[in-house]
């Protein structure tokens, strides 16, 4: 039996989170998308979640799912509506994504390659699966290095956990039954280096990344808020530039291109599965980052390399 990556503390004992049911639902957190505050045990290679105080919990973090979560939608359907048969021991996978903030308070996002089997063309922070027994921060830094070539010098960054996102792919039932189910831990990694210093070392992995961009807080605030409101296109806010400059990979070369800012503001429900946009989970994480920035813009919580979270 595969080792469970996401465990839920139910009735006083940890149980593996099963693939076919919403984690938020199994924790009894209520209807809707959340967010809800949950207690987290951040352990090498796995995550323990509880809706009540957890002995030795490393953090209390917001957990959210999209309003169109397919696992939640299946739970609301008549009896008999279910996923195709799954292996009985199939669980929920664990991933870590890195919100990398430069000293200038810009954040790095990457566009997933169009050849990716899951979530092609989505703008997301660097991140991916956690390996067996891998420290969660190490997993995020490894994915950052593998996707962008960036290796942060020891002692030159701080970090803290931001929040948890329940992710499925395809992301909604209208696009088919979900084939992937993750809990994504978003971590903020704050570099002491400027955007220019970091940019000089970026060497994207073309198999995973087709473009990247550094965005400023006022643009990110609009992106974070863009999932709300009507689905119809709206005029671009006056404080936003019509375009942002991205770096796009073209074979072995890179080229600076102007991307319409409106592309980053597209809503999930009004786009095709493979259409370029910012992922819903990324918008959630950017909202948490902006809240942190307002509270303590110059006061990092943890210092590299691997301090214990609060």
UniProtKB/TrEMBL annotation:
Keywords: Hydrolase, Magnesium, Manganese, Metal-binding. The keyword Zinc does not apply. Its EC number is 3.6.1.62. GO terms for biological process: NAD+ catabolic process; NADP+ catabolic process. Residues 91-237 form the Nudix hydrolase domain. GO terms for cellular component: cytosol; peroxisome. Gene3D superfamilies: Nucleoside Triphosphate Pyrophosphohydrolase. Pfam families: NUDIX. Its cofactor is Mn(2+); Mg(2+). One of its GO terms (molecular function) is 5'-(N(7)-methylguanosine 5'-triphospho)-[mRNA] hydrolase activity. It catalyses: a 5'-end (N(7)-methyl 5'-triphosphoguanosine)-ribonucleoside in mRNA + H2O = N(7)-methyl-GDP + a 5'-end phospho-ribonucleoside in mRNA + 2 H(+). It comes from the Eukaryota. PROSITE patterns: NUDIX. InterPro entries: NAD-cap_RNA_hydrolase_NudC, NUDIX_hydrolase-like_dom_sf, NUDIX_hydrolase_dom, Nudt17_dom. Belongs to the Nudix hydrolase family. Acts as a decapping enzyme capable of hydrolyzing monomethylated capped RNAs (in vitro). Hydrolyzes monomethylated capped RNA after alpha and beta phosphates to form N(7)-methyl-GDP. Shows low activity towards unmethylated capped RNA. This is m7GpppN-mRNA hydrolase NUDT17. The gene is NUDT17.
